[in-house]
Amino acid sequence: MPAVDLRRPELLAYAACAVLVVVLGWRVLRSDEHGAATVAPAASASARTGSVSVSAAPAAERRATVHVVGAVHDPGVYRLGDGARVQDAIARAGGATGRADLQAINLAAKVADGQQVVVPRRGAPGGAAAAAAVGAGAGAAATGSSAPISLNSATAEQLDTLDGVGPSTAQKILDYRAAHGGFSSVDDLAQIPGIGPKKLESLRKQVTV
To answer: How far does CA 88 lie from the centroid of its chain?
Structure first.
C-alpha cells in the first residue's frame, strides 16, 4: 500500500474534527446525566407521597354497657352499640315478660354507658319512679337530700348513702330487685340478709318504692 502523504493543513482539519467529536460526545453525556438526575428526585418524591397517602382507619365503634333488670326473661349485663335504645336493651335481655309494664317505660330513649334499665311489673308500686330512671345516665335519678330514695330506681351509690346501708347491703338490695322485678313495698327489705327489724324501721323514712 502506498504511503499517504498528509500535509499540515489536512492534519489540522483532522485534529479539529476529532476535537469536535470529543466535545459533542461530552455534551451528550452531560445531557443524559442531567435528565437522570431530574427523574430520580421526581420518582423519590412520588414514592414519598405514596407512602403517606394512607386512608385513615375507621374509628372504633363506641359501645354502651347496661344492666337490664326487672320483668325481662334474662336479666343481666349487656353491651349495646352506640345509639341503642331502651327497647334494644330489653330485646337483648330476652324480651319483656308477660307481667312487664312497658307503658311505664320510654322505649325510644337512648341508653347510656353504665345505665341500669329497670322494667317494672304491671301493678307494682314504684313503676313510675323506675320509668323516670330509665333513659337517664347512671346515677341520674338522684333525689333531693330530704326526699326518700326509691328502692326500684336507686343506684348502688345512692343506696350506700342510707343510714345503716353499706356497699355490701346496697348490692344485696340491687340483687333482690333484679331477681324479683322490683319491690312491692318497703317491707320487702326484710328479705334482704343483714336487714333486721330495727334497721328496717330506720330505713322506712329514708326509702320508698
So the answer is: 17
Q: Please check whether residue 107 is in contact with residue 85, taking contact to mean a CB–CB distance below 8 angstroms.
A: yes
Please state, in angstroms and rounded to a whole number, the distance separating the CA atoms of residues 138 and 111: 10
Residue with cell 442531567: 34
Q: Going residue by residue through the chain (209 aa), what tens digit of pLDDT does each one get?
A: 454 455 666 767 777 767 777 767 777 666 655 554 444 454 444 445 454 444 444 545 678 899 998 888 899 999 999 889 999 999 999 999 888 888 888 998 888 888 888 888 877 655 544 454 444 444 433 333 457 888 888 888 888 888 878 888 889 999 999 988 888 889 999 898 988 888 888 888 888 88
Distance, C-alpha 204 to centroid of its chain: 40
Name the nearest CA neighbour of 86 among 62, 119, 109, 65: 109
Phi, psi of 137, rounded to the nearest 5 degrees: -75, 170
Give the integer Cα–Cα distance in Å for 142 and 147. 10
* Residue that the C-alpha cell 343481666 belongs to: 76
Strand partners, 78: 66
